[in-house]
Design goal:
Largest sheet: 6 strands, antiparallel
Strand order of the largest sheet: 2-1-4-5-6-7
Strand content: 5-15%
Structural class: alpha+beta
Helix content: over 70%
Length: 1309
Amino acid sequence: MSSIDKLSIQGVRSFGSHAEDLQSITFSSPVTLILGENGCGKTTIIECLKYALTGECPPGSDRGKSFVHDPKIFGLNEALAQIKMKVRDKRGAEVSICRTMKVSNKRGKVSFETMDSTINFLTDAGRSKRENQDSLSGRTVDIDLAITDFMGVSKAIINNVLFCHQEDSSWPLDEAKKLKEKFDAIFGITEYNKALDKIIKMRKEEMDQLKVMEEKIKHVKYLKQEMEVKTLSLQTAQKKCDSIKDQCNECEEEMKPIEARLTEIRNIEFDIGKYQAQKVEMDTKHKNCKEQIVTISKKIKTLFEGSLVDLELEIGNFDQRMAEMQSQRTETEEELLKLKRKSSVQQDKLGSQDKKQELAKQRHQSEQACKAQLLKRVKDFCRDLQIPIDGDLVRQPEKMVDVLQEIEAVIISKHCEIAEIGEKNDKADQARQVKIDELRIELTKSEQGVAAQEKQREQSKRESETLEVEIEKIEASMQELKQLEKKIADANEIYENTSKNLDQQAIREAIADKKTGIAEKQALFKKLDEQLTFLGSMAKLVAEMGLKQKELEKKSQETHRVRSRHADNMEKFFKCPITENYRRSMQGAYDKLRGEIQDLNDQANAQKLKEQSHEIKRKNLIGEIARMEKELKESEELIFQKCRSTPYDELLNRSKVAISKLQLEHGALKSAEALYKKYIGKIEEEPCCPLCHHNMSGDEAGYLTTELTDEIQKLPENITRADKALKAEQLKYENLLQIGPNIVKVKDLKEALPQKKEELSKVEKLLDESVSEYETLLALIGEPSHNLELANSMMGDMTLLDEALKDSVRLTKELAQLKAKMPATYDSSVSMDALQAEKSQVSKDLESERKELDSQQNTFQQHMDALNRLREMKNGLKDRQIRLQEGLQSLPQLKERFEKLTSLINTLTKDIGELKSKIQPLKQNLRTAIDEKERLKGREREKLVQLNSKYNSYKSADQDIQRLNKEAQDYARLDLQNEISLLEESIKIAKDQLRKLEIEITSKTDQLETIKAECLNQQTVERDLKDNRELKQLQDKESKLSESCQALAKQLGNLDFRSVSREKIDLTKRREAGTVRKGALLGQLGEINNQVEKLQQEIDEPRFKDSLKNFRKANFEMLVTRRGIEDLGQHRLALEWALIQFHSEKMEKINRLIREYWRMIYRGNDIDYIQVKTDEISTDASADRRKTYNYRVVQSKNNTEIEMRGRCSAGQRVLASLIIRMALAETFSSNCGVLALDEPTTNLDRINITSLCDALNCIVEERQSQSNFMLIIITHDENFISSLGKINSYHRVFRNDDCKSVIRKVQVG
């Protein structure tokens, strides 16, 4: 198994790129723990491991650009990085991997490139280097492929399982498409799937080709029959053709004179036509030439009177004038450009002088401010130092110099005063220090004396103890010496006996005999090999028979195995046993079951629809009853608020009567005013009662009038009160009318509610019946569904069984055919198998004798080695005897030395006690002197600090004054006022020069415009001259064309066209008569020739010519193609079966491990277990389509499985992904025992972290016996170390002061 030993990182992410920044980590088995805070570079280690093994950059690194240390941090254009890794491959050999990278920043564009990738094969323990190679380079081989081969795992396992990046760690719960890609890559079946697809494609193509061949062979057979018919027809047609050719020859002889005269007439007609065509052409050219002359004459403004030569001379002179004018224009433009450049230079100069003037003014202002600040600072500082100032410092600069010198003198005196005080304090401190040093020296001498004597005493004690041990050893060695003498005698005796018992000569002779026997066996082996070669002529046929026999036995075993596996199920599906057409029978049973299930499903769906209908009706009724009860309650409450306990009809009648009364009263009050005024008027006219006409006295009339007047005054108040009462009663009446519908509604609801409730009970009863019926149907579907799944799973095996039976029949026939081909003279008693067996036996005997020979030689060598060891042991005992004898001789001297050391130790102990009694008083005096010194020194230091602080403030003020004085002097040296006046004068001169240049530029511009206008006028003159030249040329051409037309007309008049035409008509009639006769013959001949040619062409065509050959070839090709299609189908089924078995075995193991780890780690009660569910996309096993799988992670609770993606928490997601990776590593990484877990405790609570630690401890204990098992854990959790159990050390990753990542190994106490 492969493993990882060491990793070195330089220039990757936060790891520095310099040589001193190189960081290394050594991985240990079984656990390597990496601890560090967030952002310190822990995950970078996993990225480097992954990059070193696969060459792939981590996700989110912009194709490696952000993987290398950023060069912009140090202002560089490029940064280099290197990853070195030392591993052991699957054979245990040490291999070193080195990858070098570079990131460049050129013109703001960052680029990443891998500079080199190498593999070095290391040599250790005397083993030669791998395949005699020192290294492999990425320039010659695919390094990534080589590394995965050495490690024994695929790139997909490394990327997705062993070293999965933290960002991709939750890939098991990713979307289905990505999950399928990951699992397909991990299972490594991509290439096999490609092979299956290719086989399917090839088989399909061959089947299509076979159909074409079957049609083709029918066509080829038809062509062969046609060929025979066409050959007979050709012979008959050739005979007719010969007789017609003779008659045609006679007609041709009669036609020859007529054809000769017609040829002459055609030549004459050709000449006439040629002349007429030339005349037409000349007339057309002449007409066009005249039209061009008219057109050009209209364009010419001034007609040139001279000849064409004079015109050409005039055009040449015009070109010369135009060149001179163009030259003058160019010179003017250059002069104008020079003037503009001078103007631009002058403007730049003027702008520069303006800037200098502005700068000088700013400096002048700064000079005034500096002088004012200097004066203020000097006066304030002199006031602090009590220095008198005489005179005005501004008007008298020499006074300023004197004041500054006085300030400097005062500061120097202050400094001297501080120095004197410091010197005085130093002398006093030195005196106190001298006293302390004397006490310290005296104390040190005492302590050193005690230490020296104690050291001497300890040395003496150790020496005495050593001597005592040596004396005891020497005394004990006397007994050992006696034992050694006995051992030496025994060793001599054993050596002599062994030498006598070992007969070296006899052993050498036995070895020689064995070699002779081996040579004889080799000769026999050679003879048998020659016999096998002799029988090789028949080996092919015999081998073929053997293969066929084995294949037949294999097919029989396969048939028996499939039948045995499905015997019980076959009885379930078929009442009568079947012996053939298993696939068709199973398909019939499958279709029958599917029909039953479909019927049950239809019934269940209909029942489900009925259940849903009842449920909807029940919900609607419940809602309607609730709504009606709510409306009833609200209506009753409204009626109670309006009517209380009074009946509605009675209350309504009362209100109606009250309104009538109030309306009458209101009407009476309205008309009372007019009535009262009428009464008053009548009473005033005649004092009598208006109603009873009773005469009243004056007083009674006055009283009545007054009373009526009072009533009139009260009328508005009474009318208002009556109006309010009427409106209130009307409002009450309206409210009563509004609740009239509620009264009716309450009555209707009280009648309808019991009916609805009764209807609800009926619907609920029907719903219960529907649910019960639906569940019954679902229960009935269970058994057919199980049988359908069973039939579907058996379908593939039934196909294999049919194929195996067909192959068995075919192989039986082929074996019979091969046996018939065997020659009669063949001796079957002497078989190649027997000779091969004998040869193998001879080979085994030869091998055993060689082993015996080697054993005898090894035994002889062992005896010789034993004699040598006895000799060496005897010599060692004698050396030990000599050393012991020397020790006995030195025993008296050792005893004497031991007695001297004992007396010396006693003396030293006494002296040490005396010295220790003097040390304590000396320490007390020293401590008192030191304390006194520190107290006085502190008081002096405080006083000196106060003086220094005051001096520093004076010094700072003086420095500011000196700085301001220097600045003022610098400004004075510049003479800014004079500089400003000079600049103003210079600016004025520059402006005058600029004004003059602008005047010259205007003049030159006008001159240039005049020249341009003249050039435009000359172009019109040039165009007129060229038109005159073209007119002259056309006039010459027109005269020449007129002469040519007259010459052609004269030639046409000399030819007699009419007589020639009459002769041509006669000859043509005679030729047509002969031609008709010949045409009839030629028609017959042509028809026959066409038949002959057609028949001959058809016969000569490859399809007819090679029809017999093509028929045989097509028949052979069809048979071979049919056999190839059968072989491809068998290969596809075999390969697919193997892949299915591999997939099912691996998935079973993975899910078993996942369940085990989940139950071991997860402490929640909401999920019993998780597993990876494989959904097979079922297709017909005989169809030309391969099986595919979809993957999903499901969680189970109470035997119910649901998809985990989108339903789990963040912690469950992390834990599930981690467990799936651990299971995949256990299943697929048998050659590599490394697994890296990056932040495995993310989003986990403490109880699940603890259980995860326990599970990891169990895994480590189980696999601790494997030396190359390695678990790499990266975490930031400090508590994780203690939870993991026995951890002796771990690696801490942190950032140093330069913010670079550093790796340190830490031992756990």
